[in-house]
Amino acid sequence: MSFVIGRGDELAEGPAGRLGRYRALDGSEGADLFLDLDGPHAMLVVGKRGYGKSFTMGVIAEELARSRGVAPVIVDPMGVFDTLAEDAEGNPVPTDVVSSPAVEATSLDPKSWCALLDLSPESGAGSLVWQAATESATIAAMRDHVEATDAPDADKRAAINHLNLAASWDVFDPDGLSAADLGGPEVTIVDVSGLEARAMNAICRGVGEALYRARVRGTIDRLPWLLLDEAHTFFEGVAEPALRTILTRGRAPGVSLVTATQRPGAVPPVGISQSDVLVSHRLTSEADLEALESAQPTYMNGSLDDRMPTEPGEVVVIDDATETVHAAQVRWRDTPHGGDSPRASDYIDSDTAPTVGTD
């Protein structure tokens, strides 16, 4: 019998996406395993490199794009999810790729502006940036605000230089991404792969806050699902407050968060404890296993280490909503997977390349 992660065994009660099939002890596949797409969830997908973490994110994105009533958004730091826009097996996967994303400068509060620019709020330059962010809605207006103060010239130069650096990233725009841009039925891929970590974080912060505020204010009807690959990058930067808000308060307005990382040990405790669904591919790092073990539920017999998958695509799913644990094999992607690592052999002409044991 099929089971719906996050809901139970009532497949007909609302939208659900097929995650894969149950995996027996002998490796054979069993009944279909689905994921609830009807209500809000906080999901954490983990796994060491090469075992299918990003692949699983792609499967979830495909199912969301084909579901009704949801608005899936992927913040893509590696540039691997644009393949969702390519031809798909079966039903198409509606996709919109935003290749040059920008957000409003007001997405960041004054404290976050100082953090973004590595300035102490108590320093001369930091206090100027704080004041400018409080009074201004654009970087240009922030620079003008700093120029107009009677602060020491050295402090003004430092503040303006830091603001010029932020402007050089080209990620702040009064007409940046809004909830209306992100709230459609297609999966929106926000490609931040060409940006440095601070700029990525600014985009993620703006996207997360826009989706959350829109649902609180009732300005978008669909339930947003925000998907983040390499999530530790965002938990370590200025995006963290927005992610924490969704994790701790997103259920009421109906905002879901799916985070994926190969370093769960680098994810703050709230990122693990607030996740009601954990999808674990293979992990071997002691620090990563300890991070997950610290939040292991009492209803799980044995340790996660004892149940750890051994092959790519295999997962253990801990579903806190139904207090169940499942061993599964993630289904194949219907669109091409963009996360495979290149191999030297892919670029060698087999007719001319020497083989092992030849000169």
Automatic annotation (TrEMBL):
Transmembrane segments: none annotated. Pfam families: DUF87. Residues 330-359 are annotated as: Disordered. Residues 39-293 form the AAA+ ATPase domain. It catalyses: ATP + H2O = ADP + phosphate + H(+); Couples ATP hydrolysis with the unwinding of duplex DNA by translocating in the 3'-5' direction. SMART domains: AAA. InterPro entries: AAA+_ATPase, HerA-like, HerA_central, P-loop_NTPase. GO terms for molecular function: 3'-5' DNA helicase activity; 5'-3' DNA helicase activity. It comes from the Archaea. Belongs to the HerA family. This is ATPase-like protein. It comes from Haloterrigena turkmenica (strain ATCC 51198 / DSM 5511 / JCM 9101 / NCIMB 13204 / VKM B-1734 / 4k) (Halococcus turkmenicus).
